[in-house]
Design brief:
The complex is a heterodimer. Chain A contains eleven helices and four strands; from the N terminus they run αααβαβααβαβαααα. By secondary structure, chain A is an alpha+beta fold. The longest helix of chain A has 44 residues. Chain B is an alpha/beta fold. A six-stranded mixed beta sheet of chain B has the order 6-7-8-3-9-10, sandwiched between helices. In chain B, strands 2-1-4-5 form a four-stranded antiparallel beta sheet, with helices on one face. The C terminus of chain B is likely disordered. In chain B, helix 6 links the parallel strand 7 and strand 8. Classes of the chains: A alpha+beta, B alpha/beta. The interface between A and B is large, with 34 and 40 residues.
């Protein structure tokens, strides 16, 4: 093809074959990408600032949603084994308490029971409460023995739990019966509320990212007005003119996404020690506050998409305006 | 190649920049467009390059009616022509090679084809040794030659030049004209807008003269008999 054109008259207009054009198309795209990256690298501080702003804007909701996700897993775990805790009168000794626990184990709707003796309660309290010194000041162990009734899932509805608690409270050994579901339900409601909050904040910040990228690209178009006019004059299509700007937005979004994943990982590393202790406190073996690959991928992909959409919106509006005069 | 059929171009508020202009420039011609400043030379070139569109009448380039062209087709019209600007319109953020390569990159040619053709074009204008230089470091004459290399690299059928020697001394101007003449010899139609009467006389080529937006002398008509009309 090229040889034929070379030997042909100059007046012959050049139009490459389909395969050549496909190769050229790929080449154009890779070149536009390289060109965009090179352009960003030419103004490293400004580009880094833009990427960092994007990263921070996305890291905020991402961190909270990971934390909330953890809290959710934790509370979901508790949700299924709804329980009633029976606090026994101080006169009931450990042997009687354990016997009662065994007895209740066979009763209707109860999946399992666990007796917690007074000494065990004291040891646990001492370990986790931080009030060990206060206990030392007391002559007696102030803590009651307790029995935790794990209910079968089909008996875990709120009303049934309440009924169970009332029945148990009527027993002479039992001082109080407490439904342990209530605070979990409250916690779940709070998590749900916070989840919505994170969603709203996340949506607002995603919008902010769109605007940041859109505005950055708009300025970029403005700065390269003359260049756009020249390449339009020598036959560039709108698509060709758009391409480097779209890749610019894509690169901003991608780098911003990677940076935000790093920020989220760092933030979670920072809270991981207290979070694990918290999980320990609630007897959960769950690994908490770790960023997983799915989150990283979701973050980077959504950030890249936001970059592309932001620049697309900006490019669509502003490139048509730049015409040779 | 270029056919104007009773073309009027009116800018809002300023009246007619061109009125009732009709002429035909045959395939493979070499000619000038001249007239006082404000006579409509630039407007006429803009109509050919699909930068502006006629208010009335038809502009046909290789048989295509530019008045009826869709916006999306304009780039492909422009790829059939090479345009040389008075201020050469080079991009200073890239080197000479990349400037000349631009029309081929836009048309989607592959790297290896581009390299060969860009070097050939640069060789033709005598600037092969400057391919790595930034155009800003070149002299006015050299920059104009880079502009010409960019205009011809895609082997267009038509080259338009708007005052290509406007900023150059007579000796450099003559060199540039010789370059255009060489391209014309291999079949490229060339139309040069210029007000440099001495230079035009020297080239002994047909001249289209505009005055206040009207054609007052059409040199192409005189040699229509012995030239191929083209399409």
């Amino acid at each position: 093809m090229a040889t034929r054109q070379r030997s042909a008259q100059g007046a012959k207009n050049a139009r490459p074959s389909l395969t050549l054009r496909l190769r050229g198309w790929l080449f154009n795209h890779s070149q536009a990408l390289t060109f965009s990256v090179a352009k960003l690298a030419q103004t490293p501080i400004a580009s880094a600032m833009t990427c960092l702003v994007i990263a921070i804007a996305l890291a905020l909701p991402a961190t909270f949603s990971v934390l909330l996700g953890n809290a959710q897993t934790l509370s979901d775990g508790w949700d299924v084994d709804a329980s009633v805790t029976l606090y026994l009168h101080a006169e009931v000794d450990d042997a009687d308490g354990a016997a009662l626990a065994r007895e209740l184990n066979g009763s209707d709707g109860v999946a399992d029971t666990r007796f917690i003796g007074r000494d065990e309660a004291l040891a646990t309290f001492r370990k986790f409460s931080g009030f060990g010194d206060v206990l030392d000041a007391l002559d007696d162990n102030p803590l009651p023995a307790s029995i935790v009734l794990q209910l079968q899932p089909e008996h875990s509805a709120r009303a049934q739990l309440q009924q169970m608690a009332e029945e148990m409270a009527a027993r002479k050994e039992v001082e109080t019966a407490q439904v342990d579901l209530e605070w979990i339900q409250r916690l779940n409601a709070i998590i749900e509320l916070m989840g919505r909050g994170v969603l709203v904040v996340g949506a607002l910040l995603a919008l902010a990212v769109l605007l940041i990228i859109g505005n950055t690209i708009r300025l970029d178009i403005h700065n390269r007005r003359d260049e756009i006019v020249v390449i339009k004059l020598i036959g560039a299509t709108d698509a060709f003119v758009r391409r480097p700007f779209l890749y610019g937005g894509l690169v901003y979004g991608f780098v911003g996404g990677v940076l935000s994943a790093m920020l989220v990982a760092a933030a979670l590393l920072f809270v991981s020690a207290p979070a694990e202790q918290l999980a320990d406190l609630y007897g959960s073996g769950a690994q908490l506050a770790k960023i997983n690959w799915a989150t990283v991928v979701a973050l980077v992909v959504s950030s890249t998409l936001l970059g592309l959409i932001g620049s697309w919106l900006s490019v669509g509006r502003h490139i048509r305006e730049v015409e040779p005069k | 190649m270029i056919q104007f059929d009773n073309v009027t171009k009116r800018y809002p508020g300023t009246g007619d920049a061109l009125s009732h202009v009709s002429f035909t420039i045959p395939n493979g011609a070499f000619g000038f467009l001249t007239g006082h400043s404000g006579a409509g030379k630039s407007t006429l070139l803009k109509l050919i390059a699909a930068i502006e569109f006629s208010t009335r009448g038809q502009v046909l380039i290789k048989g295509q009616n530019l008045s009826k062209i869709r916006r999306g087709k304009i780039p492909f019209i422009r790829r059939q022509m090479g345009i040389v600007f008075q201020n050469h319109q080079l991009l200073f953020d890239r080197n000479v090679y990349d400037n000349v390569a631009l029309p081929m990159v836009i048309s989607g040619f592959h790297r290896s084809d581009i390299a060969r053709r860009v070097r050939a074009a640069l060789d033709k204008v005598g600037l092969l040794h400057k391919e790595k230089a930034n155009p800003i470091s070149l002299s006015g004459g050299e920059q104009q030659r880079v502009g010409i290399a960019r205009a011809v690299v895609n082997r267009p059928a038509l080259v338009l030049a708007d005052e290509p020697t406007g900023n150059l001394d007579p000796e450099l101007s003559a060199e540039i004209m010789q370059l255009f003449a060489q391209f014309n010899q291999v079949g490229v139609t060339i139309l040069i807008a210029s007000h440099d009467i001495a230079l035009i006389d020297e080239m002994r080529a047909p001249v289209l003269t505009l005055h206040d937006g009207r054609v007052i002398d059409n040199g192409f008509e005189h040699d229509l008999e012995d030239t191929d009309l083209g399409d």
